[in-house]
Amino acid sequence: QVQLVESGGGLVQPGGSLRLSCAASGSIFSIYAMGWYRQALGKQRELVAAITSGGHTNYADFVKGRFTISRDNAKNTVYLQMNRLKPEDTAVYYCKVATIVDYWGQGTQVIVSS
Questions:
Q1: Which own/partner pairs from 40-44 qualify as long-range (CB within 8 Å, at least 24 positions apart)?
Q2: In this model, does residue 30 exceed pLDDT 90?
Q3: CA-CA distance, 48 to 63, in Å (whole number)?
Q4: Which residue among 27, 59, 70, 103 is least crowded, i.e. fewest CB within 10 A of its CB?
């Protein structure tokens, strides 16, 4: 069975940085893409960034220039480097691995304080 384990969340001040990681384990094959979504209280889950198996990246407009997604295919791990964090970035961040089906991580809390 496939499991995604997320880490790296926490409490930071505005303008600070965090690095999230998501490691996939189990019988995982044919990964099409890996990505990060976030969900704030009272809001819908939204795409933050994604990276395809070929290395192409896609970012939401609200994080362009601040966040960087990367991957280590050998380790089945995806990262999200978050810089210049804003209070509105506060959310639970979820990792997703896309194969013929989608797998989701447990979520990691990011709180950007004022």
A1: 40/88, 40/90, 40/91, 40/92, 43/91
A2: no
A3: 7
A4: 27
